[in-house]
Amino acid sequence: MAADTRAPTPKEGQKTSTRQQDPEGTKRNIIEVASQEFALNGLSGARIDEIAAKTRASKRMIYYYFGDKEGLYLSTLEHAYAQVRAGEAELDINGLSPIDGLRRLVEFTFEHHHAHEAFIRMVMIENIHHGEYLAKSSLVRDLNVTAISNIRSLYDRGVADGTFRQGLDPLEIHWQISALCFFNVSNRATFSKLFGRDFGDSEAQERLKNNTVEMVLRFVIKT
């Protein structure tokens, strides 16, 4: 039976007045809770009933805003990527030297991924789905075009002033940065268990961040 996506009437729950007063806040609240549920249980395991119970919204309101569970899942992915790109935009790396700009970008990526483990788990889940849902999102594609253009601008400035070596692909630089910072979250628990060292403690994280910055800079800087 198809979900009822009509807007709930005031008689359909005590949460209605809050929704009417702040619909955007309600949607943000739904996305925040849903992000945790999807990260923990995946697309198939997450339940709209459970999400509704933890938000200011009813189940019908979730369907009203997002259409269905897959629509909500895609919205959480878009929100997660938008957070990363918004943080990058605040760095103002164009006002820094190419080396300092790249260093700051790597540091930011490492720190953001460490602080947003749900984002990493959601990306892992989306990879299980072979990127099927991200492929439907023009928003995410546009966001990532901007991310690569920023790295290209930084790299081109470094090549022009003789700091960076020629012949590198900005998209592949982005890949390497993402890979190093992503692995720090996705495989930290297993690495810690396998080798008997807590890679999550503050000292280890600081070392790993510095190592990641150094590896990327050594890859890009002209020698």
What's this entry about, in short?
With 223 residues, this protein is mainly alpha-helical. Helices cover 72% and strands 0% of the residues.
Structural summary, described in words:
With 223 residues, the protein is mainly α. It folds into 2 domains: 16-67, Homeodomain-like (Arc Repressor Mutant, subunit A, Orthogonal Bundle), CATH 1.10.10; 73-220, Tetracycline Repressor, domain 2 (Orthogonal Bundle). Helix content is 72%, strand content 0%. It has helices at residues 16-21, 23-45, 48-53, 59-66, 69-89, 98-115, 117-128, 138-160, 170-186, 188-195, 202-220. α6 (98-115) packs antiparallel against α11 (202-220). It is globular. It starts with 15 loop residues before the first helix and ends with a helix. Residues 9-19 have low confidence and may be disordered. Residues 47-66 bind DNA.
CATH topology of the largest domain: Tetracycline Repressor, domain 2
Q: What would the principal axes of the Cα set say about the shape?
A: globular
The name of the CATH architecture of the largest domain is: Orthogonal Bundle
Low-pLDDT runs: 9-19
Highest CATH level, the class of the largest domain: Mainly Alpha
- End-to-end CA span: 65 Å
Q: Percent of residues in helical segments? A: over 70%
Q: How much strand?
A: under 5%
Query: Average pLDDT, to the nearest integer?
Result: 90
| Radius of gyration of CA atoms, rounded to a whole number | 21 Å
**SSE ordering:** HHHHHHHHHHH
Structural class: mainly alpha
Alpha plus pi helix count: 11
Count of the domains:
2
The CATH homologous superfamily of the largest domain corresponds to Tetracycline Repressor, domain 2
**Largest β sheet strand count, sense and barrel closure:** none
Record field, number of beta strands: 0
Keywords: DNA-binding
Protein name: Transcriptional regulator, TetR family
Pfam families: TetR_C_29, TetR_N
InterPro entries: Homeodomain-like_sf, HTH-type_TetR-like_transc_reg, HTH_TetR, NicS_C, Tet_transcr_reg_TetR-rel_C_sf
